[in-house]
Design goal:
By secondary structure, the protein is α/β, with parallel strands linked by helices. The chain has an eight-stranded parallel sheet with strand order 6-5-4-3-2-1-8-7. Helix 1 packs parallel to helix 2. The longest helix has 21 residues. It is globular and about 50 Å long.
């Protein structure tokens, strides 16, 4: 209870996804200082844009040890590791060629190994995409055989994650008909089909995904239904500034339609808080690094004030 007798707001843990560090602050010695000293975050989400799990073991192990060492030294908790933009550009576990799916599965197994060595207990991201049609039309859903194969791979991956000592695996729903899941109903079905896996699969919705009006329409591009209907399986959230027209991943110095105060209210109203929320923003490679840091300082301050 607060001093005035009213119930205090549910705290919202706030961290940052390291996607903004790509091709800039690429070693733990660099990004931990940016995260802790410049941006004042104690909570982070690692991006595999900074480390390729297919690097040789000796290189990978050295970087994992550096992540563990530098984060401990600077008081940073790395909540989870997400696949990043580079791996997302591939079709991954839904590629038409089963051999490519096998490689994508092996990539994730390597990602789990790195995370465990680095002291990161969770790994996730979007799972894959089917191929587009020759006429450019979009399917309403992926083929049932492809879906069954995906679920089988998810169960196998959970066993590998358990062997590495991980605690959760994440699926990030995306606003693409070629990926899965992109609707609440699909997400609910998938969660039921992987229930009881060796490590639990959970959801990490993104504020710019569920609000994508070209797919969901102006009357349905809203995050609250995702939160209310999937509350039991959502344990992390991505936030970004966007215009609901494309998946922008802008920072909050850019005008858009996401209000940090409204974000906090929805998270609390639906009971998603106190799941952690991660600011996930991306910048053009030619964007100067100094202005990025200034924009992130402003953005994180706005969100911290809203979440307080």
């Amino acid at each position: 209870m607060s001093a005035g007798g009213t119930e205090a707001p549910v705290p919202i843990p706030f961290g940052i996804n390291l996607g903004f560090c790509v091709k800039r602050w690429v070693t733990p010695e660099l990004w931990t200082r940016i995260v802790r000293e410049r941006l004042s975050f104690e909570l982070a989400q690692f991006s595999y844009d900074l480390v390729d799990p297919m690097w040789p073991d000796a290189v990978l192990d050295r970087h994992a040890e550096a992540v563990r060492r530098e984060t401990q030294a600077r008081g940073i908790t790395v909540h989870s590791a997400f696949i990043g933009l580079a791996h997302y550009t591939f079709n991954q576990l839904l590629h038409p060629d089963p051999a490519v799916r096998d490689y994508a599965e092996a990539w994730l197994v390597r990602a789990y190994r790195f995370a465990a060595m680095a002291g990161i207990p969770r790994v996730g991201g979007p799972l894959g995409a089917i191929a587009a049609r020759l006429d450019g039309s979009e399917a309403e859903a992926i083929d049932e055989a492809d879906y069954a194969d995906l679920i089988a791979r998810m169960h196998r991956l959970a066993k590998r994650a358990a062997a590495e000592g991980l605690s959760e695996l994440y699926i990030e729903p995306t606003p693409l008909r070629r990926e899965w899941p992109w609707t609440i109903a699909q997400a609910r079905r998938m969660m039921a089909d992987v229930a009881g896996s060796a490590v639990p699969w959970r959801l990490c919705p993104d504020w710019g995904h569920g609000t994508f009006e070209p797919l969901y329409g102006p009357d349905h591009g809203e995050m609250e239904p995702w939160f209310r209907e999937l509350k039991g399986v959502i344990t992390a959230v991505h936030v970004q500034q966007t215009d609901f027209v494309l998946d922008r991943h802008w920072d909050f110095t850019v005008p858009g339609r996401v209000d940090p105060v409204d974000v906090a209210a929805k998270l609390r109203r639906t009971g998603i808080a106190p799941a952690p929320v991660f600011l996930e923003v991306f910048y053009p490679f030619e964007h100067d690094s100094g202005s990025i840091l200034t924009a992130l300082e402003t953005s994180s301050a706005l969100l911290r004030k809203a979440f307080a």
